[in-house]
Design a protein that fits this description.
heterodimer; A: mainly alpha; two-stranded antiparallel sheet; B: mainly alpha; 9 helices; 73% helix
C-alpha cells in the first residue's frame, strides 16, 4: 500500500525531502537510490520475493515491470488533464493493465521459457503497488518528461533490488549465477534459499543491513555535529 | 469428493497463498499489528475471493473463451467492481463492520491474492465448484496467516528487540520462520 493520504495541491508534485521544481536527474536518481521502491519504500514486495529464486527470473521481472512503469507513468501524465478525479484510480488501473497485457504477450513471444517460469506473476504486475503508487503520487501531477524520468528511475531501482536479491538467492541456493556454476562442485547448495522461506529471509537480512547502515550513518552525523 | 478436499487442503496449508506463494503480502505486513483487525480483514478477503471465483468462472466460460488477450484487463475490472459492490452492501446492511474495516475494504482491490486466485483458477481450468473450494481454501489460508502473524507481532510489542530490527527486518525473519513451518506440510496427500 502506498502512503498517498495527504495529497498536495494539484500541480505540486509530491516530492519528499526535495523542493518542488526539481531537475530531471533528481527525478531519475530518487527512484534508483534515495527512494528505492523495494528497499526504502517497501513496495512491490510480492514479486521481489516470489520470482527472485534465480537471477534470470529477477532480471526478466525487473525489465517487465520497468516497461509497464515507464509506459503507464508517461501515459498517465499525458492524460492527467482529461481524467476526472473521481474515476482516476480506475483509469490508472486500466492503463496499467493495458501495458501489462502488452508486456505479457511480448515476453511470451520472445522468451517463452522465462514467461512460463514467471507464470501468473507477469499479469500480477497490474497489482504491483509501485506502479499504481507512482501514478497516484507522481505521474498524475507532473508533466510527461518528469513522469518519464521518474518511471525510468523507479524501474531501474526495482530492477537493481530484484537483481541483488535474486543473485544472492541463486548463488547460495544453487551455487550458480544465470545458470553457470560459480562456486564449484564442492559447494553444497543451500536449497533453503531458493524455496519460499529463503525469499522472506533474504529480504529480511537486506532490511536489517539497511537499518544497520542507516543507524551508523545517523550516529556519524551526530558525532560530526558534536 | 477427495479431489475437492485435496484442493481445499492444498491451498489452505501446503500452498498457502501468503506463506508459500507470496500473494497478498502488502496486507500481511501492513495490517497485522492487531489480531482483531487481522482476522476481520481475512474474513472480508475470503468473501471477496468467493465472489471473484464465481465471476471469474462466468467470465472464462462466456466471455473470455473467444478473447483471451483481454484476460488481465477483464479480471481487474471485475475485481474492482466486486470490491465496490461488497463495500456498498456492507455499508448498507452491516454499518458496524464497515466502520471496523475502514480503509482496508477498498484496498482489497490491489491485494494480489485476489487477482492471483483469478489467474490460477484460469490456468488450472477449475470448474465452478472446484473454483469455489479453491477460493475458500485460499481465503481461510490467508486468514490463518494474518492471524498467526498478528498474534506474534502483538507479543513482539512488549519484547525487548534491538533497535535496528524493530522495523521490517525482524517481521520478515519471522515470516520466514512461519513459512518454514508451513513447508512441513509439503508432500502431504502424496503430492
Amino acid at each position: 500500500m502506498t502512503a498517498t493520504a495527504p495529497a498536495p495541491a494539484a500541480n505540486q508534485p509530491f516530492v519528499p525531502g526535495a523542493p518542488p521544481p526539481a531537475p530531471l536527474w533528481l527525478d531519475l536518481w530518487r527512484g534508483v537510490a534515495l527512494d528505492n521502491p523495494v528497499l526504502v519504500q517497501m513496495l512491490g514486495l510480492c514479486p521481489a520475493m516470489a520470482v527472485s529464486n534465480s537471477l534470470a527470473n529477477g532480471i526478466a521481472m525487473g525489465i517487465a515491470t520497468t516497461f509497464v512503469l515507464v509506459g503507464s507513468s508517461f501515459s498517465v501524465s499525458l492524460a492527467r488533464k482529461y481524467i476526472a478525479n473521481e474515476v482516476r484510480l480506475t483509469s490508472y488501473i486500466l492503463i496499467i493493465a493495458t501495458f501489462v497485457t502488452v508486456a505479457d504477450l511480448i515476453l511470451g513471444a520472445s522468451a517463452p521459457g522465462i514467461s512460463k517460469e514467471l507464470g501468473p506473476f507477469v499479469p500480477l504486475i497490474v497489482v504491483n503497488c509501485i506502479i499504481l503508487g507512482r501514478a497516484e503520487a507522481f505521474a498524475g501531477k507532473v508533466e510527461p518528461a518528469r513522469a518519464l524520468a521518474d518511471g525510468i528511475g523507479m524501474g531501474a531501482g526495482f530492477t537493481l533490488a530484484m537483481m541483488a536479491i535474486s543473485a544472492a538467492r541463486e548463488l547460495l541456493g544453487s551455487g550458480s549465477l544465470l545458470g553457470y556454476n560459480v562456486l564449484g562442485p564442492k559447494f553444497e547448495p543451500w536449497v533453503f534459499m531458493v524455496m519460499p522461506p529463503g525469499g522472506f529471509l533474504m529480504l529480511g537480512i537486506l532490511f536489517l543491513i539497511m537499518g544497520w547502515h542507516g543507524a551508523r550513518k545517523a550516529e556519524r552525523a551526530k558525532e560530526t555535529q558534536a | 469428493m477427495s479431489n475437492l478436499a485435496w484442493i481445499f487442503l492444498s491451498t489452505l496449508l501446503v500452498n498457502n497463498f501468503t506463506l508459500a506463494m507470496f500473494l497478498g503480502l502488502c496486507s500481511f505486513f501492513g495490517v497485522t499489528s492487531k489480531i482483531d483487525t487481522a482476522w476481520r480483514l481475512g474474513a472480508a478477503n475470503t468473501f471477496v475471493l468467493l465472489i471473484t471465483a464465481v465471476s471469474v468462472w462466468l467470465l472464462n466460460t462466456f466471455v473470455l473463451a473467444r478473447t483471451p488477450f483481454l484476460r488481465t484487463i477483464a479480471f481487474i475490472v471485475v475485481i474492482a467492481s466486486t470490491v465496490q459492490i461488497v463495500e456498498m452492501i456492507i455499508k448498507k446492511y452491516l454499518p458496524v463492520l464497515f466502520r471496523e474495516l475502514g480503509i482496508y475494504l477498498p484496498l482489497i482491490t490491489t491485494n494480489c491474492a485476489i487477482l492471483g486466485l483469478a489467474l490460477f483458477q484460469t490456468s488450472r481450468g477449475y470448474t465452478l465448484v472446484e473454483g469455489l473450494v479453491f477460493a475458500l481454501g485460499a481465503g481461510l489460508g490467508l486468514t490463518l496467516a494474518l492471524t498467526l502473524m498478528a498474534s506474534i507481532r502483538e507479543r513482539l510489542e512488549v519484547a525487548d528487540v534491538p533497535a535496528l530490527a524493530r522495523r521490517m527486518g525482524l517481521v520478515l525473519v519471522i515470516a520466514s520462520c512461519l513459512s518454514m513451518a508451513f513447508m512441513g506440510f509439503a508432500g502431504m496427500g502424496g503430492g
